Amino acid sequence: MVSRVESAAATRRALVDAAADLLDEGGPDAVTLRAVGARAGVSRGAPYGHFPDKEHLLAAVAAKSWQEVGDRLDELIADRALPPAVRLERSLAGLMEVGRRRPHAYALMFAAPTEEHPDAIAAVSRTHDQFLAIVAEVVKGPDRAGPLGALLMTSLHGIVAMENSGQLTPEKWHVTGDELLRMLIARIA
Amino acid sequence: MVSRVESAAATRRALVDAAADLLDEGGPDAVTLRAVGARAGVSRGAPYGHFPDKEHLLAAVAAKSWQEVGDRLDELIADRALPPAVRLERSLAGLMEVGRRRPHAYALMFAAPTEEHPDAIAAVSRTHDQFLAIVAEVVKGPDRAGPLGALLMTSLHGIVAMENSGQLTPEKWHVTGDELLRMLIARIA
DNA sequence: CTCTTCATGTGACGTTGTCATACGAACCAA
DNA sequence: TTGGTTCGTATGACAACGTCACATGAAGAG
Q1: CA distance A2 to A11
Q2: B133 to chain A: nearest residue by CA?
Q3: What count of CB pairs under 8 Å joins A to B?
Q4: What is chain A written as a DSSP string?
Q5: Within 13 Å of residue B60, how many CA atoms lie on the same side as its CB?
Q6: Which of A151, A157, A168 sits opposite B150 (nearest CB)?
Q7: Interior angle at CA B171, CA B174 and CA A65, nearest 5
Q8: Mean pLDDT across chain B, nearest whole number?
Q9: In Å, how far from its chain's centre is CA B18?
Q10: Which residues of chain A lie closer than 8 angstroms to B157, CB-CB?
């Protein structure tokens, strides 16, 4: 019924899911290898059969999170009835929504892939390429898509990051993150 | 010569400096209470005479880093011969320079002040007020300074953050962080 | 000079990441 | 079926860490 490799793959998936859930629920400090193993139904040492160390497990969580974003972007791209400007707006809003719903996972996604984490790097690169394609449809010049896309992506990330860190308060700046996103699109795109 | 309170204040300063140095040199993992105490010339338990826990020590490091940025902004503001636009440009470039020269400290400055860290919150608030004052001199409408300043600050932070995380590569986006900063000023301010 | 205060030093405890080792079930060859 | 191999998993152990309880010793007050 379940072969050995299937069981191992399922365990690996369960470990990544458990780590992601613990991260969402309790923040980075809650992601303990012992807790991850317990939630995945295995022991504390089991992760070492799938990941060299904790950092690689977290990289797998980041890769999974990026893949989910990429899948949503794929849906946006596949919907040919959508005007390019709407696609761009929804792609930005979608990423912002992830930053608000899963702030810890979002921070992990934008953290530095310090060592060699091919899966995470590939997932990030794919999503960036998708976003660049969406931007390229709005601004007709392909050579302008790169810089404009970078400005949009970095600015959006700054808005979400400062919002999540509590440094973007409406009392101080007289503006909300949503309004900043609208300003960004109006002035940049 | 050295009273007891002076010695205690010096020790506290030495602890914060040691933590900042260790953070700059070896990243967050290098900031151990034992290592901080050793570099400050005291034992591993000494920090608990000045800070309730490690988080408060790191908050003091963040506060000190923000104060240094604020002092540089004060110099910019005091130089009345500087055109407002140049002041704004230099304030943004100065913060970007900190993000590049001290990436770990920069990340700590923009991390969430999770609990009550009055010193850190005050230092952040002061710097934001200074930046808002600089922006207000460029855009004459005081009610526009808030949103515009927020857009500039968040976007700059996004550029620096993605640059430091290695996700803003010129190969992918066909643009550098410096060019993005110039685009930002040209299109926003 | 005595007593108090308080920063500091030290031992100890629980937790964590990680490694070495042992176990056991799934696979393969006969 | 039978025997041996592979490999994911479980467990014991260790060093390092944050933190606490307690001891120490010198500075300041009377």
Answers
A1: 12
A2: A173
A3: 122
A4: ---HHHHHHHHHHHHHHHHHHHHHHH-GGG--HHHHHHHHTS-TTGGGGT-SSHHHHHHHHHHHHHHHHHHHHHHHHH-TTS-HHHHHHHHHHHHHHHHHHSHHHHHHHTS---S--HHHHHHHHHHHHHHHHHHHHHSS-HHHHHHHHHHHHHHHHHHHHHHHTT---HHHHS--HHHHHHHHHHHH-
A5: 18
A6: A168
A7: 100
A8: 95
A9: 17
A10: 158, 161-162
Q: Strand D proximity: list residues 46-65 of A with CB under 7 Å.
A: 46, 48-50
Q: Give residue ranges of A with CB < 8 Å to any B CB.
A: 110-113, 124-125, 128, 132, 143, 146-147, 149-151, 153-159, 161-162, 164-168, 172-175, 179-180, 183-184, 187-188
**Which DSSP string corresponds to B45-58?**
TGGGGT-SSHHHHH
CA gap B140, B101 in Å, rounded: 33
Which residues of chain B make contact with A150, given a CB cutoff of 8 A? 168, 173-175, 180
Q: pLDDT digit string (tens) for A145-177?
A: 999 999 999 999 999 999 999 999 999 999 999
Q: At what angle do helices B118-138 and B54-78 cross, to 10 degrees?
A: 20
Measure the CA dihedral B26/B30/B31/B32, to 10°.
Answer: -160
Contact B187 A184 (CB under 8 A): no
Q: How many whole angstroms from its chain centre is CA A1?
A: 35
Q: pLDDT (tens digit, 9 = 90+) per residue, B42-82?
A: 999 999 999 999 999 999 999 999 999 999 999 999 999 99
Q: Taken in order B80, B82, B85, B89, is the CA torsion positive or negative? A: negative
Q: Please state, in angstroms and as integers, the Cα–Cα distance from residue A16 to each residue in A2, A66, A117, B47, following that order.
A: 20, 13, 15, 37
The secondary element (H helix, E strand) that includes residue B101 is: helix B84-101
Shortest Cα distance, chain B CAs vs residue A38, angstroms? 26
How confident is the model over A42-87, as pLDDT tens digits?
999 999 999 999 999 999 999 999 999 999 999 999 999 999 999 9
Q: What domains appear along chain B, each with residue ranges and CATH number?
A: 1-50 (1.10.10), 57-188 (1.10.357)
Mutate which of A173, A181, A182, A184 to test chain B, going by most B C-beta atoms within 10 A?
A: A173
With 0-12 / 13-18 / 19 or more C-beta atoms within 10 angstroms meaning exposed / middle / buried, residue B94 is: middle
